[in-house]
Amino acid sequence: MSTTPSTPRLAGQHAGYVRFQLAAFRAKLRPSPVMQGVAARLTDQNIADLAAYFAAQPVGPAWPGGNAALRARGEALFQQGDAPRNVIACAICHGADGRGNERLGVASVTHQSPGYALAVLRELKNAPSFGGIIHPEAMRIALRPLNDNELRALAEYVSRMP
Ligand code: HEC
């Protein structure tokens, strides 16, 4: 349950998502100097055990503070999208409550750390297409029409959503 805005919260994250990300760091498919080094030392069993542990923790509380106007902009995009601009409502995949879907491999984003949420949205938007790996591709397509102010609004909303 990170309280550092730039470090992701893992409490309550779906086991399948954590397994997938740790394997991607270990295989050096997902960039991160810190996490590639950490994951390099993990066995498959370590990864499965860690993922089960984090999935069993309750999701943390909303982050305090923030900017209400930015959050309202993020809420509208998250819940309704913006059809004329081909922005798919994030809630279609992540759910209105932002808890994602374990079975479909969709990450929980509720009360994610605000700094990490913005960083990962930028990363996913600009990630090269991996071809064979479908999951990051879904986010790359969803984020393509959005500008950086909108990514800020979305990060603000997911970290502080009711
Ligand atoms: C078509 C389904 C789909 C849509 C629409 C979608 N997402 Fe995602 N999202 C996913 C999937 C699948 C993942 C997991 C990606 C992976 O496995 O690398 C994900 C991952 C994420 C993550 C990273 C979670 C973490 O902790 O690392 C964030 C943040 C996120 N989505 C936010 C959003 C926002 C905000 C929107 C709306 C602009 C959105 N998503 C729209 C499917 C979707």
From TrEMBL:
<dbReference type="InterPro" id="IPR009056">
    <property type="entry name" value="Cyt_c-like_dom"/>
</dbReference>
<feature type="domain" description="Cytochrome c">
    <location>
        <begin position="69"/>
        <end position="162"/>
    </location>
</feature>
<protein>
    <submittedName>
        <fullName>Cytochrome c4</fullName>
    </submittedName>
</protein>
<keyword id="KW-0349">Heme</keyword>
<keyword id="KW-0479">Metal-binding</keyword>
<dbReference type="InterPro" id="IPR050597">
    <property type="entry name" value="Cytochrome_c_Oxidase_Subunit"/>
</dbReference>
<keyword id="KW-0813">Transport</keyword>
<dbReference type="InterPro" id="IPR036909">
    <property type="entry name" value="Cyt_c-like_dom_sf"/>
</dbReference>
<dbReference type="Pfam" id="PF00034">
    <property type="entry name" value="Cytochrom_C"/>
</dbReference>
<dbReference type="InterPro" id="IPR024167">
    <property type="entry name" value="Cytochrome_c4-like"/>
</dbReference>
<keyword id="KW-0574">Periplasm</keyword>
<keyword id="KW-0249">Electron transport</keyword>
<keyword id="KW-0408">Iron</keyword>
